[in-house]
Amino acid sequence: MSVCNLLSIVIPCFNEEEIINFTFVKINNLAKDWLTRQLIKDFELIFVDDGSKDHTLEILSQLVKTEKKLKIISFSRNFGHQAALCAGLYRARGDAIVSLDADLQDPPEIVPEMLNKYSEGFEIILGVRKERKGDGFLKRITAQLFYKSMNLMGANLIYNHADFRLISGRALAELKKFPESMLFLRGLIPSLGFNQSRIYYDRAERTGGKSKYSLGKMMGLALEGMTSFTYLPLRLASIAGIIIALASLLLSLWAVIITLLGESVPGWASTVLPLYFLGGIQLLFFGIMGEYIGKIYMETKKRPPFIVKEEHNF
pTM score > 0.85 for this model? Predict the structure, then answer.
Protein backbone atom coordinates (compact mmCIF):
# COMPACT_ATOMS: atom_id res chain seq x y z
CA MET A 1 0.00 0.00 0.00
CA SER A 2 1.26 3.47 -0.91
CA VAL A 3 0.23 6.87 0.38
CA CYS A 4 -0.48 9.61 -2.15
CA ASN A 5 2.42 12.08 -2.04
CA LEU A 6 0.56 14.93 -3.73
CA LEU A 7 -3.18 15.03 -4.34
CA SER A 8 -4.41 17.48 -7.00
CA ILE A 9 -8.09 18.44 -6.89
CA VAL A 10 -9.41 20.02 -10.09
CA ILE A 11 -12.63 22.07 -9.90
CA PRO A 12 -14.08 23.70 -13.04
CA CYS A 13 -16.41 26.61 -12.30
CA PHE A 14 -18.63 28.93 -14.30
CA ASN A 15 -20.77 31.67 -12.71
CA GLU A 16 -20.60 30.16 -9.21
CA GLU A 17 -20.29 33.34 -7.13
CA GLU A 18 -23.04 32.17 -4.74
CA ILE A 19 -21.15 29.08 -3.62
CA ILE A 20 -17.51 29.38 -4.69
CA ASN A 21 -16.25 30.59 -1.31
CA PHE A 22 -18.16 27.83 0.50
CA THR A 23 -16.82 25.26 -1.97
CA PHE A 24 -13.23 26.31 -1.42
CA VAL A 25 -13.53 26.36 2.38
CA LYS A 26 -15.17 22.94 2.50
CA ILE A 27 -12.71 21.21 0.17
CA ASN A 28 -9.72 22.94 1.76
CA ASN A 29 -10.80 21.83 5.25
CA LEU A 30 -11.43 18.27 4.06
CA ALA A 31 -8.01 18.13 2.39
CA LYS A 32 -6.34 19.34 5.59
CA ASP A 33 -8.16 16.56 7.46
CA TRP A 34 -6.90 13.97 4.95
CA LEU A 35 -3.43 15.39 5.51
CA THR A 36 -3.78 15.00 9.28
CA ARG A 37 -5.02 11.43 8.85
CA GLN A 38 -1.96 10.74 6.64
CA LEU A 39 -4.10 9.73 3.67
CA ILE A 40 -2.01 12.18 1.65
CA LYS A 41 1.29 13.98 2.18
CA ASP A 42 0.38 17.21 0.40
CA PHE A 43 -2.38 18.69 -1.79
CA GLU A 44 -3.19 21.44 -4.27
CA LEU A 45 -6.57 22.88 -5.24
CA ILE A 46 -6.88 23.95 -8.87
CA PHE A 47 -9.93 26.07 -9.68
CA VAL A 48 -10.51 26.67 -13.40
CA ASP A 49 -12.70 29.68 -14.13
CA ASP A 50 -14.42 29.03 -17.46
CA GLY A 51 -14.94 32.68 -18.42
CA SER A 52 -17.44 33.50 -15.66
CA LYS A 53 -19.55 36.63 -16.14
CA ASP A 54 -20.22 37.14 -12.43
CA HIS A 55 -17.78 37.65 -9.51
CA THR A 56 -16.46 34.08 -9.35
CA LEU A 57 -12.96 35.04 -10.51
CA GLU A 58 -12.80 38.08 -8.21
CA ILE A 59 -13.64 35.92 -5.18
CA LEU A 60 -11.02 33.35 -6.12
CA SER A 61 -8.46 36.11 -6.74
CA GLN A 62 -8.96 37.38 -3.19
CA LEU A 63 -8.63 33.89 -1.72
CA VAL A 64 -5.42 33.10 -3.60
CA LYS A 65 -3.63 36.01 -1.90
CA THR A 66 -3.61 34.15 1.41
CA GLU A 67 -4.19 30.52 0.44
CA LYS A 68 -0.98 28.96 -0.88
CA LYS A 69 -2.62 25.63 -1.72
CA LEU A 70 -5.07 27.37 -4.06
CA LYS A 71 -4.22 27.75 -7.73
CA ILE A 72 -6.32 29.49 -10.37
CA ILE A 73 -6.59 29.14 -14.12
CA SER A 74 -8.78 31.74 -15.83
CA PHE A 75 -9.99 31.47 -19.44
CA SER A 76 -10.27 34.40 -21.83
CA ARG A 77 -13.91 33.39 -22.46
CA ASN A 78 -16.28 30.48 -21.88
CA PHE A 79 -14.90 27.35 -23.59
CA GLY A 80 -17.10 24.75 -21.91
CA HIS A 81 -16.92 22.30 -19.03
CA GLN A 82 -14.76 19.67 -20.75
CA ALA A 83 -12.18 22.27 -21.80
CA ALA A 84 -12.01 23.65 -18.24
CA LEU A 85 -11.58 20.16 -16.87
CA CYS A 86 -8.77 19.43 -19.34
CA ALA A 87 -6.97 22.66 -18.46
CA GLY A 88 -6.94 21.74 -14.77
CA LEU A 89 -5.85 18.17 -15.44
CA TYR A 90 -3.02 19.24 -17.74
CA ARG A 91 -1.61 21.60 -15.07
CA ALA A 92 -2.02 19.20 -12.14
CA ARG A 93 1.24 17.95 -10.60
CA GLY A 94 -0.17 15.27 -8.31
CA ASP A 95 0.51 11.56 -8.47
CA ALA A 96 -3.27 11.27 -7.94
CA ILE A 97 -5.79 13.73 -9.40
CA VAL A 98 -9.43 14.12 -8.38
CA SER A 99 -11.92 16.07 -10.49
CA LEU A 100 -15.31 17.27 -9.26
CA ASP A 101 -17.73 20.12 -9.93
CA ALA A 102 -17.96 23.30 -7.88
CA ASP A 103 -21.60 22.70 -6.91
CA LEU A 104 -20.50 19.80 -4.61
CA GLN A 105 -23.35 17.58 -5.74
CA ASP A 106 -20.65 14.95 -6.14
CA PRO A 107 -19.63 14.66 -2.46
CA PRO A 108 -15.91 15.23 -1.77
CA GLU A 109 -16.39 13.28 1.46
CA ILE A 110 -15.93 10.02 -0.48
CA VAL A 111 -12.49 11.02 -1.78
CA PRO A 112 -10.85 9.03 1.10
CA GLU A 113 -12.53 5.91 -0.31
CA MET A 114 -10.97 6.75 -3.68
CA LEU A 115 -7.58 7.22 -2.00
CA ASN A 116 -7.91 3.83 -0.34
CA LYS A 117 -8.59 2.28 -3.75
CA TYR A 118 -5.59 4.16 -5.14
CA SER A 119 -3.36 2.81 -2.37
CA GLU A 120 -4.51 -0.70 -3.30
CA GLY A 121 -3.16 -0.25 -6.82
CA PHE A 122 -6.16 1.08 -8.77
CA GLU A 123 -5.25 3.91 -11.13
CA ILE A 124 -8.71 5.00 -12.27
CA ILE A 125 -11.50 5.20 -9.69
CA LEU A 126 -14.86 6.29 -11.09
CA GLY A 127 -17.57 7.93 -9.00
CA VAL A 128 -20.95 6.52 -10.04
CA ARG A 129 -24.35 7.76 -8.91
CA LYS A 130 -26.54 5.08 -7.33
CA GLU A 131 -29.72 6.51 -8.83
CA ARG A 132 -31.16 9.67 -10.41
CA LYS A 133 -33.87 10.60 -7.89
CA GLY A 134 -33.35 14.34 -8.22
CA ASP A 135 -33.74 14.37 -12.00
CA GLY A 136 -36.99 14.93 -13.84
CA PHE A 137 -38.67 12.20 -15.87
CA LEU A 138 -37.44 13.55 -19.22
CA LYS A 139 -33.84 13.89 -18.02
CA ARG A 140 -33.82 10.32 -16.62
CA ILE A 141 -35.22 8.85 -19.85
CA THR A 142 -32.85 10.78 -22.13
CA ALA A 143 -29.86 9.88 -19.92
CA GLN A 144 -30.72 6.18 -20.06
CA LEU A 145 -31.22 6.38 -23.82
CA PHE A 146 -27.89 8.14 -24.27
CA TYR A 147 -25.84 5.67 -22.22
CA LYS A 148 -27.48 2.61 -23.78
CA SER A 149 -27.16 3.88 -27.35
CA MET A 150 -23.51 4.85 -26.82
CA ASN A 151 -22.65 1.42 -25.44
CA LEU A 152 -24.50 -0.28 -28.30
CA MET A 153 -22.32 1.69 -30.71
CA GLY A 154 -19.13 0.49 -29.02
CA ALA A 155 -18.30 3.33 -26.61
CA ASN A 156 -17.22 2.27 -23.11
CA LEU A 157 -19.50 4.53 -21.06
CA ILE A 158 -20.27 3.82 -17.41
CA TYR A 159 -23.94 4.43 -16.65
CA ASN A 160 -24.43 7.36 -14.24
CA HIS A 161 -20.73 8.26 -14.25
CA ALA A 162 -20.00 11.86 -15.21
CA ASP A 163 -16.74 13.65 -14.32
CA PHE A 164 -16.23 12.74 -10.65
CA ARG A 165 -13.19 10.49 -10.57
CA LEU A 166 -9.64 9.90 -9.39
CA ILE A 167 -6.92 9.06 -11.88
CA SER A 168 -3.25 8.40 -11.30
CA GLY A 169 -0.48 10.56 -12.68
CA ARG A 170 0.53 7.70 -14.98
CA ALA A 171 -2.98 7.45 -16.45
CA LEU A 172 -3.07 11.23 -16.87
CA ALA A 173 0.26 11.13 -18.73
CA GLU A 174 -1.32 8.72 -21.23
CA LEU A 175 -4.41 10.93 -21.56
CA LYS A 176 -2.18 13.87 -22.50
CA LYS A 177 -0.93 11.92 -25.52
CA PHE A 178 -4.32 12.09 -27.25
CA PRO A 179 -3.92 14.77 -29.93
CA GLU A 180 -7.55 15.69 -30.56
CA SER A 181 -8.77 19.01 -29.20
CA MET A 182 -12.41 17.98 -28.68
CA LEU A 183 -12.15 15.46 -25.84
CA PHE A 184 -15.10 13.60 -24.32
CA LEU A 185 -13.51 12.67 -20.99
CA ARG A 186 -16.26 10.54 -19.48
CA GLY A 187 -15.88 8.14 -22.39
CA LEU A 188 -12.16 8.52 -23.01
CA ILE A 189 -10.80 7.97 -19.49
CA PRO A 190 -12.51 4.59 -18.90
CA SER A 191 -11.11 3.47 -22.26
CA LEU A 192 -7.51 4.13 -21.13
CA GLY A 193 -7.32 0.74 -19.44
CA PHE A 194 -5.23 0.35 -16.26
CA ASN A 195 -6.69 -1.11 -13.07
CA GLN A 196 -10.11 0.48 -12.57
CA SER A 197 -12.65 0.50 -9.78
CA ARG A 198 -15.96 2.21 -9.01
CA ILE A 199 -17.41 3.87 -5.95
CA TYR A 200 -21.17 4.35 -5.76
CA TYR A 201 -22.67 7.35 -3.98
CA ASP A 202 -25.86 9.34 -3.48
CA ARG A 203 -25.80 12.68 -5.25
CA ALA A 204 -26.60 15.70 -3.09
CA GLU A 205 -28.69 18.76 -3.92
CA ARG A 206 -26.91 21.87 -5.15
CA THR A 207 -25.62 24.04 -2.30
CA GLY A 208 -26.53 27.15 -4.26
CA GLY A 209 -26.79 28.64 -7.72
CA LYS A 210 -28.28 26.99 -10.78
CA SER A 211 -27.21 24.11 -12.99
CA LYS A 212 -25.19 25.26 -16.01
CA TYR A 213 -26.14 22.22 -18.09
CA SER A 214 -29.19 23.23 -20.10
CA LEU A 215 -30.99 20.75 -22.37
CA GLY A 216 -29.15 22.22 -25.35
CA LYS A 217 -25.75 21.77 -23.70
CA MET A 218 -26.56 18.20 -22.69
CA MET A 219 -27.60 17.40 -26.26
CA GLY A 220 -24.40 18.98 -27.52
CA LEU A 221 -22.34 16.88 -25.10
CA ALA A 222 -24.17 13.73 -26.20
CA LEU A 223 -23.49 14.54 -29.86
CA GLU A 224 -19.86 15.22 -29.03
CA GLY A 225 -19.56 11.86 -27.33
CA MET A 226 -21.25 10.01 -30.16
CA THR A 227 -19.06 11.47 -32.89
CA SER A 228 -15.90 11.04 -30.78
CA PHE A 229 -16.11 7.29 -30.29
CA THR A 230 -17.83 5.64 -33.22
CA TYR A 231 -18.62 5.95 -36.92
CA LEU A 232 -21.54 3.54 -36.56
CA PRO A 233 -24.14 6.26 -37.39
CA LEU A 234 -22.46 6.64 -40.80
CA ARG A 235 -22.59 2.88 -41.33
CA LEU A 236 -26.25 2.79 -40.28
CA ALA A 237 -26.92 5.57 -42.79
CA SER A 238 -25.33 3.46 -45.52
CA ILE A 239 -27.33 0.36 -44.54
CA ALA A 240 -30.57 2.33 -44.36
CA GLY A 241 -29.78 3.86 -47.74
CA ILE A 242 -29.40 0.38 -49.27
CA ILE A 243 -32.66 -0.83 -47.70
CA ILE A 244 -34.58 2.24 -48.86
CA ALA A 245 -33.10 1.95 -52.36
CA LEU A 246 -34.21 -1.70 -52.59
CA ALA A 247 -37.66 -0.81 -51.26
CA SER A 248 -37.93 1.99 -53.83
CA LEU A 249 -36.94 -0.42 -56.61
CA LEU A 250 -39.63 -2.90 -55.54
CA LEU A 251 -42.16 -0.06 -55.35
CA SER A 252 -41.20 1.01 -58.88
CA LEU A 253 -41.63 -2.54 -60.19
CA TRP A 254 -45.04 -2.70 -58.51
CA ALA A 255 -46.06 0.59 -60.15
CA VAL A 256 -44.97 -0.67 -63.59
CA ILE A 257 -46.90 -3.95 -63.16
CA ILE A 258 -50.04 -2.09 -62.06
CA THR A 259 -49.75 0.22 -65.08
CA LEU A 260 -49.34 -2.71 -67.51
CA LEU A 261 -52.46 -4.30 -66.04
CA GLY A 262 -54.36 -1.14 -66.89
CA GLU A 263 -54.73 0.17 -63.37
CA SER A 264 -53.29 3.54 -62.40
CA VAL A 265 -51.75 4.24 -58.99
CA PRO A 266 -54.53 6.00 -57.09
CA GLY A 267 -54.27 8.86 -54.70
CA TRP A 268 -52.13 11.85 -53.93
CA ALA A 269 -50.76 10.31 -50.71
CA SER A 270 -49.20 7.31 -52.46
CA THR A 271 -47.14 9.72 -54.56
CA VAL A 272 -46.29 12.56 -52.18
CA LEU A 273 -45.76 10.75 -48.86
CA PRO A 274 -42.91 8.53 -50.12
CA LEU A 275 -41.22 11.66 -51.47
CA TYR A 276 -41.48 13.37 -48.07
CA PHE A 277 -40.26 10.23 -46.31
CA LEU A 278 -37.25 9.75 -48.57
CA GLY A 279 -36.46 13.46 -48.47
CA GLY A 280 -36.50 13.45 -44.67
CA ILE A 281 -34.26 10.38 -44.49
CA GLN A 282 -31.79 11.98 -46.88
CA LEU A 283 -31.66 15.21 -44.89
CA LEU A 284 -31.14 13.24 -41.66
CA PHE A 285 -28.21 11.33 -43.14
CA PHE A 286 -26.72 14.48 -44.63
CA GLY A 287 -26.89 15.98 -41.14
CA ILE A 288 -25.08 12.98 -39.62
CA MET A 289 -22.36 13.19 -42.25
CA GLY A 290 -22.18 16.94 -41.70
CA GLU A 291 -21.47 16.45 -38.00
CA TYR A 292 -18.51 14.20 -38.75
CA ILE A 293 -17.21 16.43 -41.53
CA GLY A 294 -17.53 19.46 -39.25
CA LYS A 295 -15.56 17.67 -36.56
CA ILE A 296 -12.84 16.75 -39.05
CA TYR A 297 -12.77 20.39 -40.16
CA MET A 298 -12.31 21.66 -36.59
CA GLU A 299 -9.63 19.09 -35.75
CA THR A 300 -7.58 19.83 -38.88
CA LYS A 301 -7.37 23.49 -37.88
CA LYS A 302 -5.35 22.49 -34.79
CA ARG A 303 -6.81 25.35 -32.78
CA PRO A 304 -6.28 25.20 -29.00
CA PRO A 305 -9.29 23.87 -27.06
CA PHE A 306 -9.02 26.83 -24.65
CA ILE A 307 -7.13 30.08 -24.12
CA VAL A 308 -5.75 30.87 -20.65
CA LYS A 309 -6.01 34.53 -19.72
CA GLU A 310 -4.18 34.33 -16.39
CA GLU A 311 -2.84 31.90 -13.83
CA HIS A 312 -2.10 32.27 -10.12
CA ASN A 313 0.18 30.31 -7.76
CA PHE A 314 1.62 27.98 -10.41
Answer: no
